[in-house]
Protein 1
Amino acid sequence: MKRRAHLGMALLAGGCAASVLLLAGCAVDVPVKESTGTLYEFYCDQQDSYFSLVGLNAQLPTKTVNPATADCPFILDRVLPAHSTGTASTGPPLQYMLDAAILGVQALDPTTFTFRGMHLPGGGNAAYPVSMDMTPDGSSIWVLQIAIQPNSNGITPQPAQISILNLASQTYTGTIALPNNISADTIRFSPDGATAYISNNGAPFNNETGIPANSSVLVLDVASQTVVKTIPTPKGAGFEVMSPDGMELYTINNNLGIGANTLTAIDTTTNTAGATAFLSGGAIKMFINPTGTRLYIYQELGIVVFDTATLQQIASIKTVGFSMQNNFAVFTPDGGTAWFCNCGYGIYYQVDVRTNQVVTTTQTQDLGHGFMFGAF
């Protein structure tokens, strides 16, 4: 029942560093520290996988190949840690990515350029992970996993659940069972860390095709680790983002653009679904800028920009059509510049978000998928 990826993608966020090899005791290739910031990219094709370093002038990367990596990671989500944890306590904080290929979390130590994979409890029989988020205090990562349905493979069925990764010990210290008959999609914490929001896209199983009429957002009290409310979202609830002030949670209908045609805002002070907006071009994934004033929604034909105050579209960014997977974004802290990755096609765009104009388009040279992340 587990899905595997033949082409990989990665999202890390990190300290200024250098090209590194993936999943190995890695040597530094070209030590670099740029005061203006750095982009890193990961590519994976059928021959090799590698990280590479790119300056903010969007020059094409020089790859560092890791021939020891036989399989491409399948990166679903990432966490930006607020402070140093684990072995990187004297330098840049550890950076984490959710890797479905290993059914666990990968940690990058930017001081040594090494990776550590932390497999979910259950090993190869672990439920498939779909999303993760870090508690705002930086103490743990909560990994959201879909349900295991009755099967003939000898794997014990279980409801959707959350596995808790303690970052000090780098071990899993507990699980939280979620209600039966939900199709878990995304988990996001409120900025104060008191509440976690889990979207349920309404699919019958395995997070594949959402059914808006059955969708909802679960409100989970972090202290008691219990679901305290279910917010019906009849227009769908798939990928979600939290506003920086924690006042609004935004979710798009379903996943991977399948029938995704609605944006919904949830008022977290009342935990009720509020305004909705129709998305004529569908939706694949969504990102919010650092000031919480704009939503950037990936569609098959490009990016649409929504004003969060009115939930109205105010602009579009002309790009090549986006693939259904491997799409990410990173912003400068002031929100003035963004890099939008159409990683399924190996393209990324540097965009001036004040004018919504593409400044630079970079097409990678490989067929594999990639992702970039910024350190500013």
Protein 2
Amino acid sequence: MIDSPVQVDGARVAVLGLGRSGSAAARLLSRRGASVYASDVASSDRTVAAAEALMAEGIEASTAGHDRALLADCDWIVVSPGIPPDAEILITPPVCDRPVFSEIEVASWFARAPVAAVTGTNGKTTTTALLGAVAQTGGVSVSVAGNIGRAFSTAVLEDPDVEWYVLEVSSFQLARIDTFRPRVAVVLNLTADHLDTYTDVDAYARDKARITLNQGRDDHLCLNAEDEALSGFGSDRPVTRHWFHRHQAVDRGAWVDDGWITLTGEAYSGPIIKTAALKIPGQHNVQNALAATLAAELMGIEPTAIGSGLASFGGVEHRLERVAVIDGVTFVNDSKATNIESVTVALRAFDQPLIVILGGRHKGSPYAPLVPLLGARARHVLVIGEAAPRIVSELDGVVDVTDVGTLERAVERARELVRPGDLVLLSPACSSYDQFDNYEERGERFRQLVVAGAEREVAR
């Protein structure tokens, strides 16, 4: 636990957003003595249910808007990561005059165990889950949380006595930290993302780099040596920097030596596991495994346990997740792929002819970089959601592309187009917020549609 930069007990606190992190922060603060007002601009079934659940616990909550009169009485504010920094509510009085924190910042004030935090544009969910699994294999009690789908505040409430918290953290969460300090921090990569929110990639990078803001001499920073954009991360801090690389030796960190994930310059130096023994496919997952290996060693996990944990890990939901093979056609849920780089990884992961489903809410990056891979690997592209017209305009004439509007129609049309041996890939390159609450809901809906279609075929 650390001293909070503001008073909590007896304070009047606003929580903006009733998603997982906002609801969890409201509960944590209420149980630590704050008087909480939680609100959301939406009035969907989900947000109404979240508000009702908080009110049942004696927490004031509302939907369909933020009450400015109530906000005026608040001492400070917690902002959910889904609220952009230029949202009107954040730049006008009274909110603009109050201290504003992210949920991971608030939760860190009450965490009794050290934090290992993972960020990056791509791979952070897989790496976070992998690091948690490796730690558990090594007999270390951990609570896995953050942007991975379980709020840090929930972990602090439900798992107060663990040895480590392993967190996935996003740029939006890092943007509003003040004292948040990971004992071990991992930065996987940095490519353009969230340009619908950030003015440019430099602004995005600055928020990512904030993971090092409070790190000191007893802390560790693990960086991808293959990504030049990360070379300066932590250089202005007294933190010890470590590196990982798939192809070249590093002075201190992890690399692949003759097919072995190998540690060098660390407390333990030597081979851990052959890359061929990993269950998760693709060179990108070798990189994720290197990062998890390095972070696990710095957490004090034994080398044999690291190897065993890596070998047994089978991946995460919504990231290159095989849903079903039906009549010789494979269906893969990659709903977590919300940017161009993630989709590029997915397209390179398969050799079969592809029917690709793209679309959702546009995030600011062009789709043209996907053209070479789509042209080489995709028989047809089906696009959905708000971004559909933009995607069609950038891909038309290069690949066969059709705007089908909804995920339901995309799966239906994919079934009409497929041939035995094809692979239907949901890898949207967009956020889900136009038609779904989150990427998990989108991926789950894809899974339901695939299974339901298979059941209809059997019934015939």
Protein 3
Amino acid sequence: MIRRRTLLRGFGTAMALPWLESLVPRSSAGEQAADTLTHPNRMVFVYSPNGVIKDKWTPAGEGTDYELPPTLQPLSAVKDELIVFTNLSQDNGRAKGDGGGDHARGTASFLTGEHPYKTDGAAIRAGVSVDQVAAAQTGIETPLPSLVLGTEQGGRAGNCDSGYSCAYSSAISWKSPTTPIMKEVDPRLVFERLFGDGAGSVERRQKRNVDRRSILDVVAEDARRLKKKLGQTDRRKVEEYFQSVREIEQRIERAAPPKAAPEGVTPPTGVPDDYAAHMRLMYDLIVLSLQTDSTRISTFMAGNAGNNRAYVEVDAKEGWHSLSHHQNDPEKVATLERIDEFQMRQFGYFLERLKSIEEGQGTLLDHCMVLYGSELGDGNRHSHHDLPILLAGRGNGSIESGRHIRCAPETPLNNLFLSMLDRMGTPVDELGDSTGRLKTLGS
């Protein structure tokens, strides 16, 4: 009998497989056992800094009778998979006597709901983030407890926002109140984390890179043996999965420097120069990690707190953070709307990828909860109420999607987190400033 977590092995490689019906144990009567047909729930958190232009974000209508506003139009293909929330807040992102630093403070509280201790020294303190609460329990069931990714590294120390440590600005995942998890931004290293094979794998991977061999070449013999045991549908699914892996390999290779850099210049190591390509590559790696059950929990930062990148992709010559203090200047507002829409295009790509992958009787997105949000509502005012929050996926049938939910004003975002943790099978009584569960998600 083939086990659920089958790995294809080769020289320095262990490659997990997606969910396959042929791998499900059968009862003595020949029927697939009901409990083995269930799929694990997954949880992903996507953070985007600097807030949004709210009047182009908030839908018209409520419940299932709602229309996507201009900023969310790139999500039209997955509208029925979304819940758009209004009036969720993170009160502990507010100053509470600590003065400036809304970006760093809001980012540190985004997934924790705790008020961070203001320091630019070593005595940082926030709280355990929702993703790590779940990872502490589900992590023993997967090779990686969680995957923490981003597009820019950021510092671990120093003053990055009005007396707040850079650690607050560059991390949303906190393993303990004093331990932020620094994210990985290099897709090549993420790929190796997913498909490495333990002790000594660095040297073996280096040899494989010299040989210019695909990971699929390395596991080819094991794959051939496996395919003989699979049905036609599963063989097709494995081929599609292999194609996806190879495509990501090729994109990583294209992003790597083609030759040695000039003396004194440090070349990039697998990070594309093109920002959209970088984002989509990281999103694809999250998809792979969930598809193969390498992890069930991931976070992704589209930028650090107060990110001031110039979005040349949408003809934004001024930095993002600088633009967010627009003071109602029409030209700056219009530019910010284009940045917001750009972020939604990348997020829509991610959701459509999840939806395209069949898993049992549904899709990978059906078995996910994917939250998108920012540390601020209105970046111009540095508001911490009515945050831009989306939830995509059906949470293994426990979430009624395709709605706009207008919560009571100042409803803690952490109430939503409690309800998500319930659906992960990792319930807690409280988290940060939570006041109870959000009871409007579904069954």
Protein 4
Amino acid sequence: MKSYDLLELAGRNLREAVLRNSLTTLGIGVGVASLVAMLSLGVGLQKLATRQLGRSGLFDSIFVSSAQGFRGVGRPQTSQVPATFKPLDDNARKTFQHLPNVVEVYPDIRLPAEFRFAAPGKPQESYLALLAALPASARKSEAFDELQGSFFSSPNAPETVILADFGRELLGLPFDAKKADQKLTNDEAKQLLGKEITLRFKERQSNAVKAETSQPEDTMNFSVVGKEQKLKIVGIVSTEPNGGTRGNARIFMPIEFAESLNMVLPSDFRNLVRPGEGKSYSVLIVRVPKSKDVAGVEDAIKKEGFSTFSIVDASKGIARFFTFLDLFLGIFGSLALAVASLGIINTLVMAILERRREIGIMKAIGASDGDVKKIFFVEAGAMGMLGGVLGVALGWTIGKVINIGTNIYLQRQQIKPENFWYVPWWLVLAALVFSIIVSLLAGLYPAARAARLDPVEALRHD
């Protein structure tokens, strides 16, 4: 039997029982829609998590620390810890900067500090907050999408960006947990932007020459001097640019300017018990262009004798979680399609009972068992194809409606809307192919049953 005749005959048979075939096709469409809807939810959540972490700058960052951090003061050395260490100093920083695929290297500067600020109409008061330094690349963080004011005008500018909740504290507003991650009102922001806040800190000054009268136990190679620095508030953000992964900093300044202040950091006090090491860093952050470059740069740094950590390493468990999530969502979504396949079997079995004489005549004039099977296979495949197209469209529509409805709810709760529903092209193709395959498998039994009909018995059927 020619392909054209086969398609024409199958199409005519489908049109003869429009209602029954339409309902069967609709059942397939609902099954495919549930499959597409569930898998697109899993894919969308994974892309949302990746996007959130990616924009935070964590996926393309490597945190480098010295192997010294693994040996406590006064502890004996073990076979797992080398006898000599490479200090995490400026020389190490330059070495990292010259590694392939390295964009920038900067220290992780964050420390508790005292600030003095006079709110409009109020006397100057003292505040304690965690200070952090940001590189210029932090401007791409999603935390600055709703920035009130502006970013730092230059890397060396004596400017600061503060968190909104810290701004409320500076203005003397009562704490409200519901407003912790919300923007300030325009009037509140105007009372802060352009104003000066005074940073009080301890400056680290090297002791170039020690007096001969120094006590033997005086092994410090630097002095601590109290300093003050006025900072201009230029911006206000609702959430921390680093996502709170390295402490809850509430006020930020350019990292180049922070380094020029030579502030005493917690890591500097290691010199109290390890004299002669000079200035060192507790953590250096190495940024690469893309997350795929992290592994290679990490290996190169480890060969230099330093310890590394990256979110990419930790996110492998997250990737496995989403893989299992997609698998389970796909299994549950396929159950509806399995139920729809029963409808195909029922429809085609009923068609055999109604077309026994037609099948008998076809076999009497020379149609083979294979030709009869092909007719039923084409009918099953056609219902699978139409149902798959309908299901993909329905699943995409369901996803869009739920996404829009959820974002409306989030906006009412004053939460930033997100697109957590995503239908990739491979999911569309996979759904169509899966729908056709399930339909063809469902047509195996009816096709085999139709092919086994005895033409004599079929012609006697009334």
